[in-house]
């Protein structure tokens, strides 16, 4: 993670004014604590046994010349803490811990989803094999709690932070299992799907914000409110991820587009297609069935979803959840400048192309 990712392209055409500025502003928000986060990750990974350190650094984008991740979750931890009056440096171990858990989940996600690319390069399991990837994932999870335990913070803060992170990790695992079960057997409707997303993605992003509040010594009700903001933002983030997974550009996302459809995996586009007009619903049911969708049929399937308005409906739902998250952020007792930063970051997350 040696450098910030390039700002993603705007969600609208090149003549649009406001969206053209949004990615740059969001990138500036992420840049504020980027060096701290990278330094913290490098310090944490220095404790790894040498035999596993290189695969971990490769996966985390910490090797020279690597395409980094966005580091959204640790940035949220430090931004929320800053907004509640805490200096950022003591909270870095909390931010590092949340990123390490996230990276652990990505190693396993790539294996489960059979995604062969991550950040534009071969996924770790493709490069080094599944046994090494699984072992590196185990190391990342262990390292996360080591980083949290070693924080120079009061013991009560570390204990509360450990509770927040462990609860969120277990909830994320539960959401992932629900997602695995839903492959080729879609959940019965939007409500259970959103519940799964709230676990799989919302829980960890909620924990990122809650950890910032815990590190700042905020009251329980503020910690809870920060966590709910993050969880809602996480749902919006995952909905946008689902859109990009079908309608995005692999050069922008660093992941193959359409893989969810080919794997018969439940995602927002497929779910909305199943509830669409008969022609599209019947096609989606066939794609989700035992025969699945052939690779050479993928472009036509994506075009059918676009023509039916599935992409537009996905975007509308993402916008709804983004606005819910921003409304929740507006009610938090944060510094005004940080509230503006969170608004910028949240809007970008709901519109991004990468």
Please explain how this structure is put together.
The protein has one domain (18-351): Farnesyl Diphosphate Synthase (Orthogonal Bundle), CATH 1.10.600.10. Helix content is 71%, strand content 1%. It is built from 17 helices and 2 strands. It has a two-stranded antiparallel sheet. Helix 4 (72-83) packs across helix 9, helix 5 packs antiparallel against helix 9 (190-215) and helix 13 (268-274) packs across helix 14. It is globular and about 60 Å long. The chain starts with 17 loop residues before the first helix and ends with a helix. Residues 2-20 have low confidence and may be disordered.
Poorly predicted parts: 2-20
CATH architecture: Orthogonal Bundle
**Sheet with the most strands, sense and barrel status:** 2 strands, antiparallel
Structural class: mainly alpha
Alpha plus pi helix count: 17
Mean pLDDT: 90
The termini sit apart by 16 Å
Structural key phrases:
disordered N terminus, 354 residues, Farnesyl Diphosphate Synthase, 17 helices
Produce a short descriptive summary.
This protein has 354 residues and is mostly helical. It has helices at 18-31, 34-45, 50-60, 72-83, 92-113, 124-128, 130-149, 155-182, 190-215, 220-247, 250-253, 259-262, 268-274, 278-288, 298-307, 310-330, 336-351; strands spanning 117-118, 121-122.
